[in-house]
Amino acid sequence: DARVTQTPRHKVTEMGQEVTMRCQPILGHNTVFWYRQTMMQGLELLAYFRNRAPLDDSGMPKDRFSAEMPDATLATLKIQPSEPRDSAVYFCASGLGGTIYEQYFGPGTRLTVT
Amino acid sequence: SQKIEQNSEALNIQEGKTATLTCNYTNYSPAYLQWYRQDPGRGPVFLLLIRENEKEKRKERLKVTFDTTLKQSLFHITASQPADSATYLCALGSSGGGADGLTFGKGTHLIIQP
Question: Out of A55, A99, A108, whose CB is closest to B96?
Fold first, then answer.
C-alpha cells in the first residue's frame, strides 16, 4: 500500500529554533508538493518540485523557509528561524506530474512554535 | 484575487439522504476541479476529478457537477452514511505550464446523523 510518509508527526519548538520536516513521496511519483494548513487560511501551497527541480516556491516566505529535494525519495522543508505564526500543519503530497492528476497527501507534521 | 468559497458552516444531513456540498469560485478559470475528503488528524484524500469540458462525473455514491458559467461545482453523496462524516475540500487547478499546484477551498464539514 504505497503512501506518502512524513516525519516528525508532531513538533513543538521555541521561537527562533530551526525546524526541519521530512517527506518521502510515493515511489515513482515525480512531483512533490508542500502545503500548510491553518484554520484561518485553510490549505495553502508553499512550494513544489518536478523531478527534484523546484518549479514554484512563490507561496513560501523566502527569508525563513527553504525547501529541497536531496534525492528522489526525500523532500525537506526547513524553517529558520521559526516564529509562532508558523504554527500549522504542514502536508507533503506527491503525484505523477502530467497535465491533470490527483495528489496523494501524507499525514502531515503538526508544528507548534511557542 | 482568486477566491474559492465553500460553506463554512457544518452541514447536518440525516442518514440515507443526499448530501450536497457547494464550491463557488471567482477570478479563476480552472482547467479542472477536484474534490478531497479530510478526516481529523489526517491528510486530504482524493475523491473525484472533473475537467472544464465535463458537466458531470460519478463514482459509486458520489457525483460531481461543474458549471463554468456559474463558476460552481456541486458535490453530491447519495444514500449518505455516518461514515461519510468528514470535511470535504474542493480544489481548482490549471493545466500545463508547470502550474501544478492546487488552490483549495477551506472545506465544508459534513455530519451525517444516524
Answer: A99
pLDDT of B98 over the 60 cut: no
- pLDDT band, residue B96 (cuts 50/70/90): low
Please state, in angstroms and rounded to a whole number, the distance separating the CA atoms of residues B94 and B2.
Answer: 13
Q: How is domain A30-99 classified at the CATH fold level?
A: Immunoglobulin-like (2.60.40)
Q: Burial letters for B64-103: b for 16+ Cβ neighbours within 10 Å, e otherwise?
A: bbbeeeebbbbbbbeebeeebbbbbbbbbbbeeeeebbbb
Strands B108-113 and B11-14: parallel
Q: What is the pLDDT of residues B27-71, one digit of tens each?
A: 888 889 999 999 999 999 999 999 999 999 999 999 999 999 999
Say what the alpha-carbon torsion angle A93, B71, B37, A111 is, to the nearest 10 degrees: 50
CB contact under 8 A, A93 and B43: yes
Q: Are the C-beta atoms of A79 and A65 separated by less than 8 Å? A: yes
| CA–CA gap between residue B37 and residue B86 (Å, rounded) | 7
Q: Do B43 and A42 touch (CB under 8 A)?
A: no
Nearest to B74 by CA among B29, B28, B25, B3: B25
Q: According to the model, what pLDDT value does residue B97 have?
A: 46
Provide the domain limits for residue B45: 3-97
Residue B13 inside a domain? The answer is yes
Is B110 inside a domain boundary? no
All three cell numbers of A15, joined, read 521561537
% of chain A surpassing 90 pLDDT = 85
A106 and B105 within 8 Å at the Cβ level: the answer is no
